[in-house]
Specification:
This protein has two domains: 53 residues, no CATH class; 148 residues, no CATH class. The longest helix has 40 residues. The protein has seven helices and five strands. Helix 4 packs across helix 6 and helix 6 crosses helix 7. A hairpin with a 5-residue loop joins strand 1 and strand 2. It starts with a strand and ends with a helix. A five-stranded mixed sheet has the order 2-1-4-5-3, with helices on both faces. The structure holds zinc ion. The site of zinc ion (ZN) has 6 residues, from strand 1, helix 4 and helix 6.
């Protein structure tokens, strides 16, 4: 049976990834947690409608051009608008900063700043639960910037790209100077973070337990693995 990859993406130093050889154990874990997550996501979608409409109206005002009224009608600062958005609206805004399309359902919810779990992905191919619905989950805390959320989305997109049945692992490990027996918990985070470095907004973050590739190495990886 092929390995099953389900990433749990955390702050640097606490990254871990679940690799299971049995579907039953994974299904049990997700069944308890996933139900709660999905219910929460439905709630925030509704709650975000007002904030999203407010943002659209504000952006419309911003694009009115030189003739637009000023002074008392000046738009709020960008920080104020961002602060007023719920988690789903923040993802919907931040994904525009990612230079690769996100074709996957992307469910975003709040997390406490002290909660290290920043997201999870359920990569293709489709299979038994929890992989019957390939999607991304991103957990946002109030203090995260739009760029930081975009980086998190790009990271999860990287996980979706390596899929649950990667056939390039030996080549990736060699290209990254990683041992051939590097656990999937390590190399998948390395791969996802490389993807985020290439296609997310500029960031100093490197959320993988591996050395960050330099600019030249990144360019070579892009040509070889992401073209
Ligand atoms: Zn990850």
């Amino acid at each position: 049976m092929p390995a099953i990859y389900s990433s749990e993406c955390q702050d640097p130093g606490t990254v871990r990834l679940r690799q299971s050889s049995t579907r039953s154990s994974t299904r049990t874990t997700f069944g308890e947690d996933g139900t709660v997550r999905r219910l929460a996501a439905v709630g925030v979608v509704a709650a975000n409608v007002v904030a999203a409409v407010a943002l659209v109206l504000w952006l419309g005002h911003r694009s009115a051009g030189p003739g637009a009224p000023t002074g008392a009608l000046a738009p709020p600062s960008a920080a104020t608008v961002w602060d007023g958005l719920g988690p789903q609206a923040r993802c919907d805004s931040a994904v525009a900063l990612v230079t690769q399309p996100d074709p996957w359902p992307t469910i975003c919810r709040w997390r406490e700043a002290t909660d290290a779990l920043q997201g999870q992905s359920f990569p293709p191919p489709k299979g038994a639960a929890p992989y019957d619905d390939p999607h991304i989950e991103v957990y946002i805390h109030q203090g995260q910037s739009r760029y930081d959320v975009a980086h998190a989305i790009a990271h999860e997109l990287g996980h979706m790209r390596h899929t649950r049945e990667p056939d390039f692992v030996p080549a990736w490990l060699a290209a990254r100077n990683l041992s051939p027996d590097t656990p999937s918990a390590i190399w998948t985070e390395d791969y996802a973070e490389t993807f985020a470095a290439l296609f997310g907004p500029p960031s100093d973050q490197w959320r993988a337990p591996t050395p960050r590739p330099g600019a030249e190495a990144l360019a070579a990886l892009r040509t070889r693995f992401f073209s």
